[in-house]
């Protein structure tokens, strides 16, 4: 994958975090995985929870918006707000 402008941002953690206490992937939900146009999210089947597999986020937001339980939080870098 080519380098894109977001590579310049310094981050201490992944831009997309999943509140595992809210995530219902273990009940069969795959909404965020299906919503992400870049296929960045995946389900950790050992835990039954979604997580950010690839740190290449476009901050397009459907994962956070469409999650039925509000488990996803996308941290938009300050410079993009
Ligand atoms: S959409 Fe929400 S509840 Fe469903 S798998 Fe993703 S984080 Fe979990
Ligand atoms: S904000 Fe967009 S690119 Fe980033 S994880 Fe969510 S759906 Fe994927």
TrEMBL record:
<dbReference type="Pfam" id="PF12838">
    <property type="entry name" value="Fer4_7"/>
</dbReference>
<protein>
    <submittedName>
        <fullName>Ferredoxin family protein</fullName>
    </submittedName>
</protein>
<keyword id="KW-0813">Transport</keyword>
<feature type="domain" description="4Fe-4S ferredoxin-type">
    <location>
        <begin position="14"/>
        <end position="46"/>
    </location>
</feature>
<dbReference type="InterPro" id="IPR017900">
    <property type="entry name" value="4Fe4S_Fe_S_CS"/>
</dbReference>
<keyword id="KW-0249">Electron transport</keyword>
<dbReference type="InterPro" id="IPR017896">
    <property type="entry name" value="4Fe4S_Fe-S-bd"/>
</dbReference>
<keyword id="KW-0004">4Fe-4S</keyword>
<keyword id="KW-0479">Metal-binding</keyword>
<dbReference type="InterPro" id="IPR050572">
    <property type="entry name" value="Fe-S_Ferredoxin"/>
</dbReference>
<dbReference type="GO" id="GO:0046872">
    <property type="term" value="F:metal ion binding"/>
</dbReference>
<feature type="domain" description="4Fe-4S ferredoxin-type">
    <location>
        <begin position="48"/>
        <end position="77"/>
    </location>
</feature>
<keyword id="KW-0411">Iron-sulfur</keyword>
<dbReference type="GO" id="GO:0051539">
    <property type="term" value="F:4 iron, 4 sulfur cluster binding"/>
</dbReference>
<keyword id="KW-0408">Iron</keyword>
<keyword id="KW-0677">Repeat</keyword>
């Amino acid at each position: 994958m080519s380098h894109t402008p977001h590579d310049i941002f310094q981050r201490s953690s992944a831009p997309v975090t999943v509140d595992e206490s809210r995530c219902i992937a273990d009940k069969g939900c795959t909404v965020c995985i299906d919503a992400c146009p870049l296929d960045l999210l995946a389900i950790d089947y050992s835990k039954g929870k979604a997580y950010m597999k690839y740190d290449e986020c476009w901050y397009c937001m459907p994962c956070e918006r469409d999650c039925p339980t509000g488990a996803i939080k996308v941290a938009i870098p300050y410079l993009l707000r």
